[in-house]
Amino acid sequence: MRRGDRRAVPARALVGFGVAIFMIGAPAVVLGQDTDQKVVDIAEPLGFGQKVVEGVGLVIGLAGTGSEPRPSAYREKLETEIKRNPDLDVQSILGDPLQRTSLVVVRARITAGMSPQDELNIEVLLPPDSETTSLEGGFLMGTWLNEIGIASGNQLDGKPMVYAYGPVITGNAEAPDDPQVGRVLGGGRIKQEIPYVLLINDRYRSGGVAKQLQDLVNQRFQYRDGRFKKGVATAKTDNTIVLNVPQRYHHNQLRYLQVLAQLRLKRTPELQDQRLETWGKELLDPKTAGEAALKLEAIGGIASPVLAQALTSDHPQVRFFAAEALAYLDDSAGTDELVRAVIEQPDFRTMALAALAAMDQPAGIVRLRTLMDQPDPAIRYGAFNALRTADPGDPYLGRTRVLGFLEERRRSEEADDPMSLRVGAEAAPVRKEPPREDPFELYVVRSDGPPMIHVSRTRRPEIVLFGDQHQLETPVVLGGTGPILLNAAQGDRRIEVSRIELTGAPPQVLSCSTDLVEVIRCVSALGATYPQVVSILQGAHSQANLDAAFQIDTVPNDVQQYDRALLAGKDIVKDDALAPASFEEETNRRRGFGLFKRLRPGGTTSNPPDEEPKSELEAELGLDPQFQEPEPRRPGLLGRFRNRPGDSDR
């Protein structure tokens, strides 16, 4: 996720994502002398800023739009990586006469709170002197992105932080139609988790204070490490506490820090009763309801009855903030109010869905499933996104395999042919290869709402079909950004899918029904990448071949009004001049933290192919197609990668 900065981080305190620590003595300080003293009064949470990591990569598979890079520091770095493999020839790769390769600059934005399970969007762009005209149809070979430093005017690479690879989808938020820039959706993984840090102010700096803060935070927040629950805070020194993120807040980390900041240092039964009464009254005032809800949430589950009482308020803003805090306390009492906000309050929709996703309660899951039947595309896809966040394995998501199409067809034919079964039983056993990971995610949601097809060009490689009876209307004459062509005459019940290689090699031809799921799986079996499949669907939409509404990045996004109501204590005022932004890019860059992190469901169920052929380009250049993440000292440009152009299902 790309996450922006709500406020500046002091340079004196932050070195990379670590903290410069100097162990010095300090007089003992008694915390909690002020009964209203909070964590944020004695320690500063760090990690709000973005860090850009960068590398040099190689894009292959271009249709004659690439170029040989000119002499430069970028080329020297790329040549160094290529020469790590003595079997490869630098000139044949960079100087490909058919212009199928290009040097690119690869970047990612990282922040604290990220983990190796999160998938990052990767930016791909051309150097200023590049002669490459388009990155369309390209595939980024695996490469490491490093911290960047400047010394004596020269750029220096730091340690490797992110590993990136995958198919390039052209355009970006600023220039969606520019073929010379692109992104690899979900194509990056960070090497190791980056925690948040609480930096204790110099006045309170001591081992005793650090221990007190650690215990205070751990009494309120825990996370699960395998089978065991652990406190999120670990005092590392007399002024530094490292913070993990509880799973419930992983998709909304800003709220976690907001609640943590409201923890009071002094706690007694008398003070707790007083706070519940005082903050309960503040909760009933629309102008203070947002902050009061955060304070009550910081107390923990004992505040649930006070929050629940506010659900009877006549003011929708009061009811919403109470319901939101209840959800993060895993209390389902406000579920109906959150659903009402999703449908009736667009300004609160994004955060209402986030709250529903935070609950580990059947009520929240059931409501999200129901919201996927709504006719509004933003509501139903937002509900789908929230349900996947709550439970990536929920059967109502309708996760469907992409690869394995030909293997399933072969098994079906064998089942229909008794002789084939007998011969197969007598044959020598075939060694099973480990299943390959799908090149993108495909979902078929059984929805009672109107049929809809949703694809993403900005967040994650996925196609979501709402409704399970999508058909391609004939006649069909379609081609995407790659070598895949689809043809069917008027009234045909089957579609011919061909892969035409520019090198003149014999075409690969398959046949499938007009069922859209089968079509998507068929073109993927011939090696179509996610950007190519999206291009085919866009072409089908423009030619009226789709029997359903076609949506791209239709997501709830605007949270500015929510932030004003929560933090400024004001009623919502409509501002039609505010332009909407994408759900996981502009919105969260503005807020500071990703609301719905891309989590890949574990494992894959795709069937193994018969073989793993290289594409002609890879074979010609001598590149090994199998992916195996390299060691940090041997960047992955020349390592092995998966889901490459020409990767076949058979």
Please report the number of helical segments: 20
Which regions are unreliable across 5 or more consecutive residues at pLDDT < 50? 1-28, 420-428, 570-613, 625-650
Q: Largest beta sheet: what is the strand line-up? A: 2-3-4-8-6-5
Spatial extent as radius of gyration: 27 Å
Terminal residue distance: 34 Å
The main pleated sheet reads as: 6 strands, antiparallel, barrel
Shape: globular
Mean pLDDT: 81
Number of strands: 22
The percentage helix is: 25-40%
Q: β content, as a range? A: 15-25%
**Oligomer type:** single chain
* Secondary structure category: alpha+beta
Description:
- There is one protein chain.
- Helices cover 30% and strands 20% of the residues.
- The longest helix has 15 residues, at 269-283.
- It is globular, with a radius of gyration of 27 Å.
Identify the notable features of this structure and list them briefly.
22 strands, five-stranded mixed sheet, alpha+beta, disordered C terminus, six-stranded antiparallel barrel, 650 residues, disordered N terminus
